[in-house]
Amino acid sequence: MTSNIRVRFAPAPTGLLHIGNARTALFNFLFARRHQGTFVLRIEDTDLERSTNASIDRIIEDLTWLGISWEEGPDREGAHGPYRQSQRLSTYRELADRLCQEGKSYKCFCSEERLEKLRKEQLSKGKMPRYDGRCRSLPPEEIAKMESSGLRPVLRFRVGRGSILFEDLIHGKMSFDSAGIGDFIMVRSDGMAAYNFACVMDDHLMHISHVIRGEDHLSNTPRQILLYQALAWQPPIFAHHPLILGPDRAPLSKRHGATAVSQYRDEGFLPEALQNYLILLGWTPPSGQETLALEKMVEEFSIQDLSRSAPIYNRKKLEWLNSYYIREKGEGPLAEMVAPYLQRAGIQIDQIDPQWFHQICGVLKENLVILSQVEEYLGIFFDEKFFFDEGAQAILQDPKNRQTLHSILGALEDSSDITSEDQASLLRQWGKKTGRKGKDLYAPLRAAMTGKTKGPELVKTLPLLGKERMIRRLKMALEIS
Ligand code: GLU
Questions:
Q1: Which residue out of 117, 120, 127, 254 is catalytically annotated?
Q2: For the purposes of burial, counting CB atoms within 10 Å of the CB of 272, is it exposed (0-12), middle (13-18) or buried (19 or more)?
Q3: Average pLDDT, the chain
Q4: Whose Cα sits closest to atom 6 in ligand 1?
Q5: Banded pLDDT at 389 (limits 50, 70, 90)
Q6: What's the gap in Å between 92 CA and the centre of ligand 1?
Q7: Could you tell me the domains of the chain?
Q8: pLDDT for res 422
Q9: Which of 94, 99, 181, 236 is least surrounded by CB atoms within 10 angstroms?
Q10: Within 10 Å of residue 124's Cβ, how many Cβ atoms?
């Protein structure tokens, strides 16, 4: 059964989905799920110059990848659409006219130059820049004259005196003095609704009960409440969450590294890991269990419990979660996720025995922090990528190591083909035969067989190489001088 709880995520389609916005979407999604409510995706594309359809598609793709779904949106019409602001212009116009007729808004003809000058003057006097109200009471004849001369006004909201109060679910009681708020623009001179105006119209007409968004919008909320009051509408309940900061405490941006969801996806982060990481930013699960599946988040997460202080981005923690979720994956599903990285590296995936490939993934999953790292290990399993790296070459030049490998080569040539069961005992036999153990045995063996000094467990890796390949590589290793 659905409740009256309705929330929305309202991105502007002007670029890639930032992980900060994805976190806002996740909060809204979880809130709706927890309260059997409805989650709406609304596209705020009133900035026609910067908004693109490609960006809308990417946002939908990234949210879907992240496991976030919605009941109403541009791609699934509901009772309160359309869900793109550019398709709601006639609604905005009607309501703007109503406010204008009621004298709650007015036409302003001030030029950009005048406003810029005013702003500079105010700033130089240490004042907060705000519109000075010059066009507040223009006589109708003057308005008509300016309009007939071709001047296109903006529509400003007439801000009255008083305090604006609201209760924020995260910050508690909030109070703003309207004296600090200038008459703000509702409709731009090109006829397009400005953010605050369009947002209020839509939140009301879409029956949004709770607005959960970033703290960067906290200063917009008193303006929006004034609009609700002017239209005698009930405002929704607000929750403004702190934004993610970089390690230097500046808002998380490109200079801190990847910020777009799609970048994380390309690098090989799993959606479960990113989801889980985002929910832990500013929130500690009451159970103390940090790895949470989506269903558990729905049960345990509550927006009121979010910390009021800003969380700091920590890639190491995200990587830790990612390696956890990689280890949790079965070989088959992991193979499917890893396959594109092999293809990217030029491996003909359709020519590989699927079972062998699944086993490789099973072995590699202990080593992968992000999926794209699989490229570093391809040389171990695919001859066309095989080479001895510098570290391996140094190990293989040591006479003692060469002697060890020589004697292993002899033993290997005499043995039958190897399965994972006999690999462990084979390693013991090789140890006995060469008189070497631990690192002295494994380091040359790893260098010769994998071309590397580090990698997945040898006892699991070697059987996947097979006897023939092992012999070939040992011989190649012994040719290094
Ligand atoms: N389009 C706004 C943004 O992306 C939406 C803000 C809101 O949720 O009201 O920041």
A1: 254
A2: buried
A3: 95
A4: 10
A5: very high
A6: 17
A7: 88-241 (3.40.50.620), 254-328 (1.10.1160.10), 331-478 (1.10.10.350)
A8: 75
A9: 94
A10: 8
Please check whether residue 227 is in contact with residue 155, taking contact to mean a CB–CB distance below 8 angstroms: no
What does DSSP say about strands 163-168 and 172-177: parallel, antiparallel, or unpaired? Answer: antiparallel
Token couple for 117: 């000058």
The band of 176, judged by pLDDT with boundaries at 50, 70 and 90, is: very high
Phi-psi map region of 232: left, alpha, beta (phi>0 left; psi -120 to 50 alpha): left
Cβ contacts of 185 within 8 Å, gap of 6 or more: 108, 154, 155, 156, 157, 194
Nearest CA to 213 among 31, 13, 64? 31
* Atom number, ligand 1, closest to the C-alpha of residue 24: 8
Q: How far, in Å, is the centroid of ligand 1 from the Cα of 199?
A: 8
**Residue 463 contacts residue 391 (beta carbons within 8 Å):** no
Residue of minimum CA distance from atom 3 in ligand 1 = 11
d(CA 240, CA 234): 18
At residue 25, φ and ψ (nearest 5 deg) are -60, -45
Kind of pairing, strands 38-41 and 6-9? parallel
Contact criterion met (CB below 8 Å) for 5 and 31: yes
Q: Which of 217, 227, 228 to mutate to test the pocket of ligand 1 (most atoms within 8 A of CB)?
A: 217
Q: Rounded to whole angstroms, how far apart are CA atoms 108 and 121?
A: 20
Decide if 254 is catalytic.
Answer: yes
At position 232, the amino acid (one-letter code) is: A
* Contact between residue 318 and residue 277 where contact means Cβ atoms under 8 Å apart: yes
The two tokens of residue 48 are 């026609």
Question: What does the alpha-carbon distance between residue 275 and residue 58 come to, in Å, rounded to a whole number?
Answer: 18
Q: Which pLDDT tens digit goes with each residue over 197-235?
A: 999 999 999 999 999 999 999 999 999 999 999 999 999
State the amino acid at position 471 in one-letter form: I
Q: pLDDT, tens digit, for every residue of 116-163?
A: 999 999 999 999 899 999 999 999 999 999 999 999 999 999 999 999
SS3 136: coil
Distance from the alpha carbon of residue 446 to the mean position of ligand 1, in angstroms: 54
Tell me the two tokens of residue 419.
Answer: 């399965």
Rg of the chain, C-alpha, whole Å? 31
Token readout for 313 is 């981005």
Which protein residue's CA is at the shortest distance from atom 10 of ligand 1? 11
What residue ranges line ligand 1, CB within 6 angstroms? 10-12, 44, 199, 213, 217
- Report the phi/psi class of residue 370: left, alpha or beta, with left for phi > 0 and alpha for psi in -120 to 50: beta
User: If you measure from the C-alpha of residue 257 to the centroid of ligand 1, how many angstroms do you get, rounded to a whole number?
Assistant: 23
User: Which residue has 């008509």 as its token pair?
Assistant: 144
